[in-house]
User: What shape does this take?
Amino acid sequence: MNTPELMRKVRALEIRTRRSVSEVFAGEYSSAFRGRGMEFSEVREYQPGDDIRAIDWNVTARTGSAHIKRYVEERELTVVLAADLSGSGRFGSALRTKNDTAAELCAVLAFAATRRNDKVGLVIFTDRVEATIPPRKGLRHALRLIREVLNFEPRRARGERVGTDIAAAARELNQAQKRRAVIFLVSDFLSHSARSPGADPLDDEQVTALRILARRHDVIAARISDPRERSIPGAAGLLELEDAETGRRFVIDLSSRSARSRFERLMERRGGRLGEQLRRVGIDSFPASTHDESYIHALVELFRRRERRR
Assistant: This one.
């Protein structure tokens, strides 16, 4: 994508997401992450009623009178956007692909973080970590992140498939981000572990990596999907489908109501199981569809649920 075209896309995305950013703020963006950590404020003299566990014994010994360390809740967030831009993200049955939806959601979150003067960073991954931009403040930095997402092309040999490795991304995030952060994991969660019918969406390696990540950071997952991945329209004839990440092909008989029903039940169970697996490792999640902007309402509702839990 050439530079003028890229800048037009970034500008259009900035304009299109303004209302969504305002809705995210109205949905208690800031208060949804209270309690994320504490930062040092001051050392002062001990007063009756203070917690003796807060006494700073070094200062107390040096001054001859009891002093305590005082901490306050961190006012600043560090937000990291972890965007899965693998081969399956190129699919979309209407105006937007899943990667388009991921880019739009990343823009909303980046602008929301910037409006609150939070730091925001980016990790792009496929079956490897493709790009990492450390968290910084400012609108110019947020626009840079959006440009990276919109302009991303995986570095592959011609014809090479682009898969997904969520476990590798989780390990990289845990290693690179030393301080506690809010991590938005934006993915369709279609990886090698989900290729066989009935298999859990996340395999043991992914579950372990995500559990470790969620212990250290506040992780929220955006589960991106397209309606055609959940429901196939009835029609006459056979439909050949190809897995964008493995190249595997299979055929569905569109005229068979039972075949369509089996597919839809399988995908419905998969969606429910994915949400359950994420909850079990301590990750909140919300759905994001390629067909509309209902993901904004789902995100806002998630923020409000988190606030009510506190």
In short: The two ends are 45 Å apart (CA to CA). The mean pLDDT is 83. The CA atoms of residues 110 and 128 lie 23 Å apart.
